[in-house]
Amino acid sequence: MAYETILYEVESQVATLTINRPKALNALSPQVLDEVSRAIDEAAADKSVRVMILTGAGKAFVAGADIAVMSTMSPLEARRFARKGQEVLFMLERLEKPVIAAVNGFALGGGCEISMACDFIWASEKAKFGQPEVNLGVMPGFGGTQRLSRLVGKNWAKELCLTGGMISADQAKEIGLVNRVFPADEFMSEVNKMAQEMAGKGRVALRGIKNMVDEGYDLPLERALSMEAEAFATCFASNDQKEGMSAFLEKRKPKFRTN
Ligand code: CAA
């Protein structure tokens, strides 16, 4: 499929989606959102894809929603734009394959928001995070007030959104937004290594883990545990369970099916 504002490549069961408008620091325009949603659909439909990496070209991950585009929006258009962004971020969250946010640089506004819709965030030491919308006279619209508070608590979410300040990758790790921070020159090779490793695991288990953590999070524990037992049982209907457990007992590495 032809894309103009993103790069989409699949190699060894890992799809890498790179937002590619480096001159505008990868700002999310309607066209970028549209192409990201098409690439997510492509990854969902492609059985050879097990894991996705989301990253940005150049010095930014994503410096936010496109301010030039938003500057002339009416309230009605702004609401539509926010809903569109939210929908695309939901698609990432609901993709039944793990998505790693590989944050290589600025992750501001919509950039911080899209990273939070991935399954976890790994950052280069050069990354910076923030929700600077308040500096533009507006507020986050792609889930910043909601996913941030769920990830790091209300106090940090309020501080970041109300001050519009930026934090470093290490500070983002300290507050629990980022899982790991890497030296810039090793960053993408470490992300690729982890993605390859995950891609070698069983598909049913990967899907079950992602779905259950997300779906169970907002449910009462008892209900979520009962759903977990169902998902656990589903694994036992798969070849992956047979292969994984036989391999353990036979003291060899499992070879999970690739389709
Ligand atoms: N939208 C559109 N263009 C952007 C942009 C954005 N979010 N961020 C940067 N750019 C453009 C700049 O306008 C500039 O373009 P020109 O070369 O044509 O002038 C180019 O990218 C490079 O940017 P800078 O010269 O500003 O680069 P810098 O290194 O000096 O500063 C920065 C980097 C601190 C990230 C700065 O660009 C910046 O503050 N960007 C805006 C960040 C922001 O406010 N993001 C939130 C947007 S609102 C939002 O996202 C709402 C929402 O929740 C949906």
TrEMBL record:
Keyword field contains Cell cycle: no
Entry coiled-coil feature ranges: none
N-terminal signal peptide: none
Superkingdom classification of source: Bacteria
Entry keywords, A to Z: Lyase
Entry-linked Pfam families: ECH_1
A Gene Ontology biological process term: fatty acid beta-oxidation
InterPro entries: ClpP/crotonase-like_dom_sf, Enoyl-CoA_hyd/isom_CS, Enoyl-CoA_hydra/iso, Enoyl-CoA_hydra_C
SUPFAM superfamilies, alphabetized: ClpP/crotonase
PROSITE patterns associated with the record: ENOYL_COA_HYDRATASE
Gene Ontology MF annotations: hydro-lyase activity
PANTHER family noted in UniProt: ENOYL-COA HYDRATASE, MITOCHONDRIAL, ENOYL-COA HYDRATASE-RELATED
Family membership noted in the UniProt record: Belongs to the enoyl-CoA hydratase/isomerase family.
Protein name: Crotonase
